[in-house]
Design a protein that fits this description.
Pfam families: V-set (PF07686). By secondary structure, the chain is mainly beta. The longest helix is centred in the N-terminal third of the chain and has 15 residues.
Amino acid sequence: MFWTFFISFLLIITTSSSHIDINDENKPIIEALNTNVTVTSGHKAILICTFDSTNNDLSLSSSHQLIWIRQNYESNNADSLLAHNQDLLISDYRLIVQRTDTFYSLTITDVNIDDEGIYACEVNTQPPQKAFVHLYVQ
């Protein structure tokens, strides 16, 4: 009896609400604009993660937090937390972080070979979601 009621209730909600898209359940909240970014040493790299402008959960006034992480695969070192929302967490004059209602970016000026690697932008949803950008330096 309960399951019949529950399924009927779900069908009513789904059919009466035209903006619900069952396929959006698995759609990521945050995505990398470009998953691979290649720059020449000495130039500027711009890493960008985007989110849907209609997703109010990630607006600047929301409680969701965004972070930029530099992934480290060496066993001795932990990942580096670079930025939280619009605040840099490390002192590197070459880094600029920006957050708007539609994107979250990390700019690295005067890129060098040591900057090459995988960067992730993460949003603190449950479970947390990450988007990855691989930076290649020539």
